[in-house]
């Protein structure tokens, strides 16, 4: 399986120290919220067939109000590396968070364009042997 990336149309975000990925809410536990996330994705991807178990939406598509407020606990302080740089900490979504941010400016990076490395076609070579 390849690395996960956001399913929002036009977004190619993968997890980084600034971007977190979130799985779809469970259809069994919260069918209404599950369908709301599906409708949000369909706004950006016409004909999308729905989420798979690996489908995720990145943190760039949620407003600040969708995240739980961070508190500095003793556990958070322990996560600070010995050089004083905090370790990566995933932002936690509120239980009722809905992806509502779809502007291009909120997408952290664009896809890498593949260069075509086509091999030129060779002309067929015909060898005829005439004679004895």
UniProtKB/TrEMBL annotation:
Alphabetized GO MF terms: DNA-binding transcription factor activity; sequence-specific DNA binding; zinc ion binding
PROSITE patterns listed in its UniProt record: ZF_THAP
Keywords per UniProt: Cell cycle, Coiled coil, DNA-binding, Metal-binding, Nucleus, Transcription, Transcription regulation, Zinc, Zinc-finger
Chief site of localization: nucleus
Cellular component annotations (GO), alphabetically ordered: nucleoplasm
One Pfam family from the record: THAP
GO term, biological process aspect, one: endothelial cell proliferation
Stretches assigned to the THAP-type domain: 1-102
Location(s) in or outside the cell: Nucleus, Nucleoplasm
Function: DNA-binding transcription regulator that regulates endothelial cell proliferation and G1/S cell-cycle progression. Specifically binds the 5'-[AT]NTNN[GT]GGCA[AGT]-3' core DNA sequence and acts by modulating expression of pRB-E2F cell-cycle target genes.
Family designation: Belongs to the THAP1 family.
Name of the protein in its database record: THAP domain-containing protein 1
Source organism of this protein record: Albula goreensis
């Amino acid at each position: 399986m390849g690395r996960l990336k956001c399913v929002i149309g036009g977004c190619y975000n993968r997890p980084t120290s600034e971007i977190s990925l979130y799985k779809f809410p469970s259809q069994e536990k919260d069918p209404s919220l599950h369908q709301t996330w599906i409708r949000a994705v369909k706004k950006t991807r016409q004909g999308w067939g729905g989420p798979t178990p690996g489908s995720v939406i990145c943190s760039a598509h949620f407003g600040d109000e969708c995240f739980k407020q961070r508190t500095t606990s003793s556990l958070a302080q322990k996560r600070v590396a010995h050089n004083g740089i905090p370790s990566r900490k995933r932002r936690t979504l509120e239980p009722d968070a809905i992806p509502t941010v779809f502007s291009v400016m909120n997408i952290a990076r664009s896809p890498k364009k593949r260069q075509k490395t086509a091999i030129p076609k060779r002309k067929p070579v015909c060898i005829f042997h005439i004679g004895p």
